[in-house]
Input
Amino acid sequence: MLQNSRAKKVAGIILIILALLSVGLAGILLSNTLSNSAVDAQQANGQVRNFTLYVRSTWINMPNGTKMWAFGYTDNPNGQAKIPGPSIVVTQGDTVNITLNDNKDPTRTQFNPDGDGHTIHLHGLDLPSAMDGDPMTAPGGHAVMQGQAYTYHFVAKYPGTYWYHCHQSAAEHIQMGMYGALIIRPANASNQAYPDTPTFDKEYTFVLSDMDSAMHQTDYDGLYKGGSDPNWTKYQPDYFFINGKTWPDTMMDPEDSINATVGQTVLVRLINVGYVVHAIHTHGYHFQVIGSDGRKLDAPYYKDTLSIGPAERYEIILKLDLAGRYMLHDHAEQMNTNNGEYPGGMITMINVNNPDGSNPVPMKQLMQR
Amino acid sequence: MLQNSRAKKVAGIILIILALLSVGLAGILLSNTLSNSAVDAQQANGQVRNFTLYVRSTWINMPNGTKMWAFGYTDNPNGQAKIPGPSIVVTQGDTVNITLNDNKDPTRTQFNPDGDGHTIHLHGLDLPSAMDGDPMTAPGGHAVMQGQAYTYHFVAKYPGTYWYHCHQSAAEHIQMGMYGALIIRPANASNQAYPDTPTFDKEYTFVLSDMDSAMHQTDYDGLYKGGSDPNWTKYQPDYFFINGKTWPDTMMDPEDSINATVGQTVLVRLINVGYVVHAIHTHGYHFQVIGSDGRKLDAPYYKDTLSIGPAERYEIILKLDLAGRYMLHDHAEQMNTNNGEYPGGMITMINVNNPDGSNPVPMKQLMQR
Amino acid sequence: MLQNSRAKKVAGIILIILALLSVGLAGILLSNTLSNSAVDAQQANGQVRNFTLYVRSTWINMPNGTKMWAFGYTDNPNGQAKIPGPSIVVTQGDTVNITLNDNKDPTRTQFNPDGDGHTIHLHGLDLPSAMDGDPMTAPGGHAVMQGQAYTYHFVAKYPGTYWYHCHQSAAEHIQMGMYGALIIRPANASNQAYPDTPTFDKEYTFVLSDMDSAMHQTDYDGLYKGGSDPNWTKYQPDYFFINGKTWPDTMMDPEDSINATVGQTVLVRLINVGYVVHAIHTHGYHFQVIGSDGRKLDAPYYKDTLSIGPAERYEIILKLDLAGRYMLHDHAEQMNTNNGEYPGGMITMINVNNPDGSNPVPMKQLMQR
Output
């Protein structure tokens, strides 16, 4: 929810909304789009891709039975938030329109009658201010408020790994779950992260996040019982996620663990949407770091443990030459727990089968832990 | 203030001071200078630059009305501390003398009658022990004490971004504000960070810091009311600064925000003088990382979010090809707050005007937040 | 100790142990070894090196008189834990066998009657699951339990800096002290970290660690008084070590400080076995970063302050051209303390003598602090 100054702003926001109504929101959208049309036309040689996102709340089930209130994006207006939100995957040259339809703002309660509003910041895409999703620089200087919709438009230029997140009350809204992966594949090279980087057989995206469950509770209480907002500087996360799951749930899902055959090459896109550094370690394999933040590295390097700061992304290549099962986990060991209980949190598995589908390590023995 | 062993050391310090008086402080300074004179003469081909710094206390005004006691350097003996201290900008080949005149030590109180003393560590300059500012290795094995002065001497060798800070009771004195930027420009290339790196039109230095206001209070109480020192391992910062300012003050100052015309290239020198990692993200632009810690990178790379550990420095180049206003901020979102209230802390703006001075985003809408 | 689910698992573990006894542990070991024998034979051209490690407890003496309970590896079955454990130094091409003999498990108490068991994860060696030391993927899906022994086998392939640690209840067992350095020297190049990297005159290995003494106490109480386990997400370290020592003990030991003659080149292998980022700064010198995680960097770079995330390793080269004494320390200043008292923790010295053995800085003045 908005900070203490929220109450004072209600009058101001109402005035702005009235002003927008008189100008016409459609007019603003049109002018934004037109201003970049010349540039776009040069770069656009792909498909037109349209996405619509909504904002909803949800309850995250923890392995130990805890439930954590959260909110985030979804592409299903009748569903709950997906955390992370739907992955947006496009190809270089595509013309992309992402509409944020704030038709049921989960931050709108009797204690916060206007709701906070939301935006989509396309992190790493380098777009004009009007498309940037920062409410300060957005048309009108505010977020997309309850009852409004706004279309973020871009032509996909640089292949790479990006992400999107809300920038309204960002310390709160990102923590609460408003993020998702945004992938741009290179034109004519769907099995490479960038032109001239290694070809891969399989591809995974791991969204790394951390949450402070006490702050989620405080936030909920603030919105539904009129309490005060969390003090974000006291942030101390107790749950740690890969694609919104904690171990062991991570390794039960074929998209949140790596599953391949010996001899295959795998690309993993690592996205840290959390607020602390995560140090990703792979057992069994070193990996080659080939790119970061949507740009190919001129000097790729090998690591077995990679520190990833908040909001950074890295593309890594694993050549899986050794059958078996291998952990992939954060080496800040306190983050391999579910609220302090090890093992848990930011752990998953790299499962490498023999060509006949067998594996030297029975999957069932992993379930004993 | 000095730790618990301070009381026991008073006798020892008095003996050392007496010894120094008999040897003559000037004699020590002279011998330090002479011992490096042969090397210096080879490298010195620039100007002689003399600086004098004093140590003073101050009260930092927070946007929410809080005041935080602090102390730091100043070049004005009649003024308060400047936090960060005055930027020292010299050119490769210059002969530089920086005198620390400890004529009014703000750590000298009835509960700490000798004061702590202070030094200047020229972080990254690789100087002989006597010029290094570590009190352990300084002449006599102690800091520059109340009533003393000491001249740090060097010939500027490698261009780059450095910083200076006190190394006496460093966990305390750096936290309290004793730091400043130190820039060495390349000879004959004032618009490049290093020879053979991109030329820039404008240049900014952003000193990134973090403070724990409760520890500042404890420190003040220790010195003025006789309480015990903070336990630095409990460090949990609640204020986050660019050049000593928190948002929105950062974006009100033309030196603490980026202000340029579309088409210009900007160099930003990032210096993390804080105790935690800061992950600097730029909206609107990727940047090229061209150097770190006073050395050009052989393999520069592009990022939109850069993790900067304590005491690291990075030079980044932004090519501003897109008019508008764009955030530059820490993506550890809890640090984009003033004591927990978002937005605040380590946020500033990149303002890129059209050639006619206009900007697609009215500045006044940024002030509404 | 194992987490809350430990009690429930006792029956399961007993069943597994019985199963293992019937299959024969020796048989499992034999098959593991055989499965890699073809690969090994190609690479093995060195010596056969056999090591045996045991697990024991110890009390770590802090400079301020505090004692901290801990446990770790030792090569002396009649001694206490060594923290860090014995360095294992082998040469590329060596055939290495490391037997973990869990004959006196320090986690076995009346409140934890089976003990936790232990493993050796050879971090960075990329071994088959059976040799990986992850209890989930180890034969039988469990650690080496009290009364068992297990031999980890590998042929040393890539020169570089690695480490080993327990992976059973890893958040606890690593924190408690179960780690050590593992060095692979290149064949025919004992004075280089990797082929084609600078030759060095002297070599040091600095194992960087951090400990939360309150959690050590909680852990001890859990094992010996039946209390509950620490919640690892509340981790807040108060002691910081280089090779298991805190300053000033670090600088008293010739292996935990750098001691060389002007003109010499020194290799330092930095291993972060802790749970937080450490930012290592050298006074007096920049250093060249030549490798990380057991792989040479194609684009080495110079730094004076290097952020090292959990479990990362870096090889750095210092050319010591300046006599004197210079600090090497973490620049997260709160970590240069012993439980909050500065100076302490992760600080040591680089001592560079003149060719005649003299030093411009008397060692005794360092002792005054």
